[in-house]
Amino acid sequence: MKAIRVEQFGDPSVLKLQDVPDPQPGPGQVLIEVKATGVNPVEAYVRTGTYVSKPNLPYTPGSDCAGVVKALGDAVKAFKIGDRVYTQGSITGTYATQTVCDVASVHPLPRQATFQQGAAVGVPYATAYYGLFIRGKLQAGETLLIHGASGGVGIAAVQLAAALGITVFGTGGSARGRQLVTENGAHRVFDHHASNYLQEIMDATGGRGVDAVLEMAAHINLAKDPTILAKRGRVIVVGNRGPIEINARDFMQRNADMRAMSLPSAESNELVRIHAAIVAGLTNQTLRPVVGREMALADAAQAHRDVMEPGAYGKIVLLP
Questions:
Q1: Same domain, 206 and 310
Q2: Cα–Cα nearest to 226, from 204, 254, 196, 200
Q3: Local confidence band at 249 (pLDDT 50, 70, 90 cut-offs)
Q4: Is pLDDT above 90 for 210?
Q5: Any domain includes 25
Q6: CA 170, CA 149: separation in Å to the nearest integer?
Q7: Residue 274 included in any domain
Q8: What pLDDT is attached to residue 53?
Q9: 146 plus 105 within the same structural domain
Q10: Same domain, yes or no, for 170 and 256?
Q11: Over the stretch 101-154, which tens digit does the pLDDT of each residue have?
Q12: Cα 206 to Cα 95: distance, rounded to the nearest angstrom
């Protein structure tokens, strides 16, 4: 089979398309014929060798894909050969034409979703759900700001929150991105490059502030986020690329708090809840993953460059 292999950590050029032996599923595992693979920023961090956890070299990147079950390991009863599925987690990596996953990482892909959309689900939608409803404890009737709403996690959060009756504000750095956020259910969208956008957000709440901020770039925004919170509001940090200085008094004055999250830290019972909600949303089409760009598997290096650029627009997907 074909797979992207990383034999040394470094810049995107270390991602090489190679011929490798077909993997075989062991007990409790599923072999998937990959139809589309999702590209996540965390995979670019891992590739550099500077991330908190490092895979053993050589390795194939990727945790998200969608495809068809090709073979089953012993004791797997949840799926049958030919089932359409998506993944959030892989043993052998998903930047490949085939991948082996633990059965707990495999979920049914409803017929209402394409394989490209299925590849855009795993990390983005699980991250959004975990941040909003498990760490953030958002409830219907509250007001949410999604800071950086036009990327994969941001669009997922817009759809999830709007479906639950939450008033959704979003920010985006381009007119195209802001239009996408609006089209996916946000009630108001702001340009985070505008000098007065924070005041515009406060004005939109009648001066009360938002109940929660879902923050994709804490290294840029965390010092400002508490200034637009309502009393007892919270900032949920999803993404961060470096240190930032904050004034704790801005949280103290509002009895507000910051809640960090990391999807790999989610408990197994939480993941069951998350993916049950995602499958239901894909089925009733309240969740509609946005694929911003489709690229060939051989173009994984360019995909890693693009996924780290500002101005995100939906999800980058690789096609084998």
A1: no
A2: 254
A3: very high
A4: yes
A5: yes
A6: 5
A7: no
A8: 85
A9: no
A10: yes
A11: 999 999 999 999 999 999 999 999 999 999 999 999 999 999 999 999 999 999
A12: 47
Long-range contacts, stretch 79-82, CB < 8 angstroms, 24+ apart? 79/30, 79/103, 79/106, 79/108
* Total structural domains within the chain: 2
pTM here is 0.94
Instruction: Classify residue 79 by burial, with Cβ atoms within 10 Å: 0-12, 13-18, 19+.
Output: middle
Mean pLDDT of the chain: 96
Per-residue confidence band for 254, with pLDDT thresholds at 50, 70 and 90 = very high
pLDDT above 90 (res 171): yes
Q: Which domain holds residue 246?
A: 124-264
Please check whether residues 143 and 222 belong to one and the same domain: yes
User: Model confidence over 273-298: pLDDT tens digits?
Assistant: 999 999 999 999 999 999 999 999 99
Q: Which residue, among 130, 261, 277, 140, has the nearest Cα to 211 in the 3D structure? A: 140
Contact 255, 232 (CB under 8 A): yes
Residues 134 and 237 in one domain: yes
Structure tokens at 140: 């219907």
Question: Does some domain include residue 193?
Answer: yes
Q: At 131, which CATH number?
A: 3.40.50.720
Write the DSSP string, 209-266.
-EEEEEES-HHHHTTTGGGGEEEEEEEEE----S-----HHHHHTTT-EEEE--GGG-
Q: Is residue 135 in some structural domain?
A: yes
> What Cα–Cα distance (Å) separates residue 105 from each residue in 69, 86, 123?
13, 9, 11
